[in-house]
Amino acid sequence: WAGASWRGPNAGLVRLDWTLNEAGERFIGLMEEWTTSEDGESDRNGQFAGRGFFGDYSVRVETPQGAAVESALTLSPGPGAHVETVVIATSQ
Question: In 19, 64, 82, 83, which residue has its Cα 20 to 30 A from 74's Cα atom?
Answer without folding.
Answer: 64
